[in-house]
Amino acid sequence: MLRALSCGVLAFPGLFCFLRKFISCTFKTWTEADVVLVSERLVSTLHAVLASTAGLLIIKSCKNVMTDRHWLSTDFVWFGVPYMSYDIYAMYLCHYYNCQVKGHVEYRNHSLHTVRAFLRKDFLLVLHHTVLLTIFLPITLFFRRDLGDFFVGCLFTTEFSTPFICLGQILIQLGLQASWLHRVNGVMALLSFFTCRVALFPYMYWAYGRHAGIPFHSVPFHLPLCCNLGNLCILAPQLYWFTLLCRKARRLYLRQAKPKSS
Q: 72 with 54: CB under 8 angstroms?
Protein backbone atom coordinates (compact mmCIF):
# COMPACT_ATOMS: atom_id res chain seq x y z
CA MET A 1 0.00 0.00 0.00
CA LEU A 2 2.63 2.53 1.09
CA ARG A 3 4.89 1.63 -1.82
CA ALA A 4 2.11 2.13 -4.38
CA LEU A 5 1.05 5.40 -2.73
CA SER A 6 4.64 6.67 -2.60
CA CYS A 7 5.19 5.81 -6.27
CA GLY A 8 2.09 7.82 -7.20
CA VAL A 9 3.20 10.80 -5.10
CA LEU A 10 6.57 10.83 -6.87
CA ALA A 11 5.41 9.92 -10.37
CA PHE A 12 2.63 12.36 -11.26
CA PRO A 13 3.71 15.68 -9.69
CA GLY A 14 7.33 14.84 -10.52
CA LEU A 15 6.57 14.16 -14.19
CA PHE A 16 4.46 17.31 -14.39
CA CYS A 17 7.32 19.47 -13.07
CA PHE A 18 9.82 17.80 -15.42
CA LEU A 19 7.57 18.31 -18.46
CA ARG A 20 6.98 21.98 -17.61
CA LYS A 21 10.72 22.55 -17.52
CA PHE A 22 11.44 20.50 -20.64
CA ILE A 23 8.63 22.01 -22.76
CA SER A 24 9.41 25.59 -21.73
CA CYS A 25 13.05 25.06 -22.79
CA THR A 26 12.06 23.35 -26.05
CA PHE A 27 9.25 25.67 -27.15
CA LYS A 28 10.61 29.05 -26.11
CA THR A 29 7.79 31.01 -27.79
CA TRP A 30 5.07 29.26 -25.82
CA THR A 31 3.39 31.04 -22.95
CA GLU A 32 3.22 29.55 -19.48
CA ALA A 33 -0.43 28.69 -20.17
CA ASP A 34 0.62 26.64 -23.22
CA VAL A 35 3.33 24.83 -21.27
CA VAL A 36 1.11 23.98 -18.32
CA LEU A 37 -1.75 22.82 -20.56
CA VAL A 38 0.38 20.42 -22.60
CA SER A 39 2.22 19.15 -19.50
CA GLU A 40 -1.05 18.41 -17.73
CA ARG A 41 -2.46 16.62 -20.80
CA LEU A 42 0.64 14.45 -21.15
CA VAL A 43 0.53 13.39 -17.51
CA SER A 44 -3.19 12.63 -17.86
CA THR A 45 -2.39 10.51 -20.92
CA LEU A 46 0.19 8.49 -18.99
CA HIS A 47 -2.22 7.88 -16.12
CA ALA A 48 -4.96 6.87 -18.56
CA VAL A 49 -2.71 4.37 -20.35
CA LEU A 50 -1.65 2.81 -17.04
CA ALA A 51 -5.22 2.68 -15.71
CA SER A 52 -6.62 1.15 -18.91
CA THR A 53 -3.86 -1.45 -19.01
CA ALA A 54 -4.45 -2.36 -15.38
CA GLY A 55 -8.18 -2.61 -16.03
CA LEU A 56 -7.76 -4.93 -19.00
CA LEU A 57 -5.39 -7.17 -17.04
CA ILE A 58 -7.89 -7.41 -14.19
CA ILE A 59 -10.84 -8.12 -16.51
CA LYS A 60 -8.90 -10.82 -18.35
CA SER A 61 -7.80 -12.60 -15.16
CA CYS A 62 -11.14 -12.53 -13.31
CA LYS A 63 -13.28 -15.36 -14.68
CA ASN A 64 -15.68 -15.12 -11.77
CA VAL A 65 -16.85 -11.50 -11.75
CA MET A 66 -17.57 -11.51 -8.03
CA THR A 67 -14.97 -13.62 -6.23
CA ASP A 68 -11.81 -13.70 -8.37
CA ARG A 69 -9.04 -11.43 -7.11
CA HIS A 70 -6.20 -9.44 -8.72
CA TRP A 71 -3.61 -7.43 -6.82
CA LEU A 72 -3.90 -4.46 -9.20
CA SER A 73 -7.48 -3.79 -8.14
CA THR A 74 -6.23 -2.36 -4.85
CA ASP A 75 -2.62 -1.42 -5.57
CA PHE A 76 -3.47 0.71 -8.59
CA VAL A 77 -6.14 2.53 -6.58
CA TRP A 78 -3.49 3.52 -4.04
CA PHE A 79 -1.16 4.47 -6.89
CA GLY A 80 -3.89 6.64 -8.47
CA VAL A 81 -4.87 8.53 -5.30
CA PRO A 82 -2.06 11.12 -5.70
CA TYR A 83 -3.00 11.59 -9.35
CA MET A 84 -6.56 12.66 -8.47
CA SER A 85 -5.26 15.18 -5.95
CA TYR A 86 -2.51 16.44 -8.24
CA ASP A 87 -4.85 16.77 -11.23
CA ILE A 88 -7.14 19.18 -9.40
CA TYR A 89 -4.12 21.41 -8.75
CA ALA A 90 -2.90 21.05 -12.36
CA MET A 91 -6.34 21.99 -13.71
CA TYR A 92 -6.29 25.06 -11.48
CA LEU A 93 -2.90 26.07 -12.90
CA CYS A 94 -4.26 25.68 -16.45
CA HIS A 95 -7.18 27.93 -15.56
CA TYR A 96 -4.96 30.47 -13.79
CA TYR A 97 -2.36 30.90 -16.53
CA ASN A 98 -4.96 30.86 -19.28
CA CYS A 99 -6.79 33.78 -17.65
CA GLN A 100 -3.47 35.52 -17.00
CA VAL A 101 -2.55 35.32 -20.70
CA LYS A 102 -5.93 36.80 -21.59
CA GLY A 103 -5.00 39.86 -19.54
CA HIS A 104 -7.32 39.55 -16.54
CA VAL A 105 -5.93 41.92 -13.93
CA GLU A 106 -7.07 39.84 -10.96
CA TYR A 107 -4.85 36.95 -12.16
CA ARG A 108 -1.57 38.72 -11.51
CA ASN A 109 -1.26 36.66 -8.32
CA HIS A 110 -2.95 33.59 -6.85
CA SER A 111 -5.81 34.51 -4.57
CA LEU A 112 -9.07 33.28 -3.13
CA HIS A 113 -10.81 34.93 -6.08
CA THR A 114 -8.85 32.90 -8.64
CA VAL A 115 -9.57 29.68 -6.75
CA ARG A 116 -13.30 30.43 -6.54
CA ALA A 117 -13.40 31.30 -10.25
CA PHE A 118 -11.73 27.98 -11.06
CA LEU A 119 -14.18 26.04 -8.90
CA ARG A 120 -17.12 27.74 -10.63
CA LYS A 121 -15.73 27.09 -14.11
CA ASP A 122 -14.71 23.44 -13.60
CA PHE A 123 -17.15 22.55 -10.85
CA LEU A 124 -18.24 19.23 -12.37
CA LEU A 125 -14.69 18.00 -12.94
CA VAL A 126 -13.59 18.97 -9.44
CA LEU A 127 -16.70 17.35 -7.98
CA HIS A 128 -16.00 14.20 -9.99
CA HIS A 129 -12.44 13.96 -8.63
CA THR A 130 -13.57 14.76 -5.09
CA VAL A 131 -16.30 12.12 -5.10
CA LEU A 132 -13.85 9.52 -6.39
CA LEU A 133 -11.43 10.39 -3.58
CA THR A 134 -13.89 10.66 -0.70
CA ILE A 135 -16.58 8.10 -1.55
CA PHE A 136 -15.63 5.58 -4.22
CA LEU A 137 -12.04 5.17 -3.10
CA PRO A 138 -12.96 4.07 0.48
CA ILE A 139 -15.63 1.75 -0.94
CA THR A 140 -13.13 0.16 -3.32
CA LEU A 141 -10.45 -0.27 -0.69
CA PHE A 142 -12.33 -1.05 2.53
CA PHE A 143 -16.06 -1.75 2.18
CA ARG A 144 -16.55 -4.15 -0.73
CA ARG A 145 -15.31 -7.18 1.24
CA ASP A 146 -12.79 -8.22 -1.44
CA LEU A 147 -15.57 -8.77 -3.97
CA GLY A 148 -15.95 -7.50 -7.52
CA ASP A 149 -12.38 -6.98 -8.71
CA PHE A 150 -13.73 -7.54 -12.23
CA PHE A 151 -15.94 -4.45 -11.93
CA VAL A 152 -13.10 -2.39 -10.49
CA GLY A 153 -11.11 -3.33 -13.60
CA CYS A 154 -14.03 -2.24 -15.77
CA LEU A 155 -14.06 1.16 -14.09
CA PHE A 156 -10.32 1.52 -14.69
CA THR A 157 -10.93 1.15 -18.43
CA THR A 158 -13.09 4.29 -18.46
CA GLU A 159 -9.77 6.11 -18.85
CA PHE A 160 -9.24 4.56 -22.30
CA SER A 161 -10.73 7.61 -24.04
CA THR A 162 -8.55 10.13 -22.17
CA PRO A 163 -5.44 9.88 -24.44
CA PHE A 164 -7.56 10.72 -27.50
CA ILE A 165 -9.15 13.72 -25.78
CA CYS A 166 -5.75 14.95 -24.59
CA LEU A 167 -4.20 14.43 -28.02
CA GLY A 168 -6.96 16.51 -29.60
CA GLN A 169 -6.19 19.39 -27.27
CA ILE A 170 -2.46 19.09 -27.91
CA LEU A 171 -3.02 19.08 -31.70
CA ILE A 172 -5.05 22.29 -31.37
CA GLN A 173 -2.23 23.76 -29.31
CA LEU A 174 0.19 22.89 -32.13
CA GLY A 175 -2.09 24.49 -34.73
CA LEU A 176 -3.04 21.18 -36.35
CA GLN A 177 -6.79 21.37 -35.82
CA ALA A 178 -7.38 21.27 -39.61
CA SER A 179 -5.22 18.18 -40.15
CA TRP A 180 -6.46 14.69 -40.99
CA LEU A 181 -4.86 13.46 -37.75
CA HIS A 182 -7.10 15.73 -35.72
CA ARG A 183 -10.19 14.49 -37.56
CA VAL A 184 -9.27 10.82 -37.09
CA ASN A 185 -8.44 11.45 -33.44
CA GLY A 186 -11.82 13.15 -32.96
CA VAL A 187 -13.64 10.08 -34.27
CA MET A 188 -11.58 7.83 -31.99
CA ALA A 189 -12.31 10.10 -29.02
CA LEU A 190 -16.07 9.85 -29.62
CA LEU A 191 -16.04 6.08 -30.18
CA SER A 192 -13.80 5.31 -27.21
CA PHE A 193 -15.69 7.66 -24.90
CA PHE A 194 -19.04 6.10 -25.78
CA THR A 195 -17.70 2.54 -25.51
CA CYS A 196 -15.70 2.85 -22.30
CA ARG A 197 -17.65 5.51 -20.41
CA VAL A 198 -21.26 4.98 -21.49
CA ALA A 199 -21.78 1.49 -22.93
CA LEU A 200 -19.53 0.06 -20.21
CA PHE A 201 -22.27 0.33 -17.59
CA PRO A 202 -24.86 -1.82 -19.43
CA TYR A 203 -22.03 -4.28 -20.08
CA MET A 204 -21.26 -4.55 -16.35
CA TYR A 205 -24.94 -5.19 -15.61
CA TRP A 206 -24.99 -7.83 -18.35
CA ALA A 207 -21.84 -9.48 -16.94
CA TYR A 208 -23.38 -9.64 -13.46
CA GLY A 209 -26.62 -11.03 -14.90
CA ARG A 210 -24.73 -13.79 -16.69
CA HIS A 211 -22.86 -14.60 -13.47
CA ALA A 212 -26.06 -14.69 -11.38
CA GLY A 213 -28.13 -16.45 -14.06
CA ILE A 214 -30.73 -13.71 -14.33
CA PRO A 215 -31.90 -11.71 -17.37
CA PHE A 216 -30.35 -8.33 -18.07
CA HIS A 217 -33.50 -6.33 -17.29
CA SER A 218 -33.76 -7.93 -13.83
CA VAL A 219 -30.21 -7.08 -12.72
CA PRO A 220 -30.96 -3.62 -11.22
CA PHE A 221 -33.64 -5.19 -8.98
CA HIS A 222 -31.19 -7.81 -7.67
CA LEU A 223 -28.53 -5.27 -6.72
CA PRO A 224 -28.50 -3.14 -3.56
CA LEU A 225 -29.81 0.39 -4.01
CA CYS A 226 -26.39 1.84 -3.19
CA CYS A 227 -24.83 -0.02 -6.15
CA ASN A 228 -27.40 1.33 -8.58
CA LEU A 229 -27.04 4.87 -7.19
CA GLY A 230 -23.25 4.65 -7.34
CA ASN A 231 -23.31 3.58 -10.98
CA LEU A 232 -25.79 6.34 -11.77
CA CYS A 233 -23.58 8.95 -10.10
CA ILE A 234 -20.63 7.87 -12.26
CA LEU A 235 -22.66 7.51 -15.46
CA ALA A 236 -24.51 10.84 -15.28
CA PRO A 237 -21.46 13.12 -15.82
CA GLN A 238 -20.21 10.78 -18.55
CA LEU A 239 -23.44 11.30 -20.48
CA TYR A 240 -23.13 15.05 -20.03
CA TRP A 241 -19.51 15.11 -21.24
CA PHE A 242 -20.36 12.83 -24.16
CA THR A 243 -23.07 15.28 -25.20
CA LEU A 244 -20.52 18.11 -25.08
CA LEU A 245 -18.11 16.08 -27.21
CA CYS A 246 -20.81 15.43 -29.80
CA ARG A 247 -21.69 19.13 -29.95
CA LYS A 248 -18.05 20.08 -30.35
CA ALA A 249 -17.58 17.50 -33.12
CA ARG A 250 -20.65 18.83 -34.91
CA ARG A 251 -19.36 22.43 -34.73
CA LEU A 252 -15.98 21.40 -36.12
CA TYR A 253 -17.61 19.44 -38.93
CA LEU A 254 -19.85 22.36 -39.92
CA ARG A 255 -16.91 24.78 -39.72
CA GLN A 256 -14.81 22.62 -42.05
CA ALA A 257 -17.70 21.89 -44.42
CA LYS A 258 -18.59 25.58 -44.88
CA PRO A 259 -15.57 26.53 -47.07
CA LYS A 260 -16.17 23.49 -49.28
CA SER A 261 -19.81 24.38 -49.86
CA SER A 262 -18.97 28.02 -50.57
A: yes
Close Cβ partners of 5 (under 8 Å, ≥ 6 residues apart)? 78, 79, 81, 82
Full 3-state SS string of 99-168: HHHCCCHHHCCCCHHHHHHHHHHCHHHHHHHHHHHHHHHHHHHHHCCCCCHHHHHHHHHHHHHHHHHHHH
Output the CA torsion sign for 193, 130, 113, 38. negative
Q: In sequence order, what are the residues at sequence separation of 6 or more whose Cβ sits closer than 8 angstroms to the Cβ of residue 261?
A: none
How much of the chain exceeds pLDDT 70, in percent?
97
Contact of 42 with 26, CB cutoff 8 Å: no
Per-residue model confidence (pLDDT) at position 108: 87
Which residues have C-beta within 8 Å of that of residue 233, sequence separation ≥ 6? 131
First and final C-alpha spacing in the chain: 61
Q: What is the pLDDT of residues 160-192, one digit of tens each?
A: 999 999 999 899 888 888 888 988 999 999 999
Closest CA to 55 of 164, 152, 165: 152
Query: Looking at residue 173, what is its pLDDT?
Result: 83
